[in-house]
Amino acid sequence: MIRVEGHKNLYRDEKSGAIINCDTASYNKYVNMLQQKELQKSEIERMKNDIDEIKSLLKELINKQ
Known about the structure:
Layout: E1 2-3, E2 10-12, E3 19-21, H1 24-64
Antiparallel strand pairs: 1-2, 2-3
């Protein structure tokens, strides 16, 4: 692979001509960010389910009176 001039983490594949980014630290940071977003989504979904359950229990309690 040939280093792209002016970029320390970019290389050009000799066969395909594709530009390849070899910055693993940035890639790992990106993957961690995606994982955090997924955790946030699942937490929000869990909270929504909890709220629905609370509403259901409150309605049941009101109907018993």
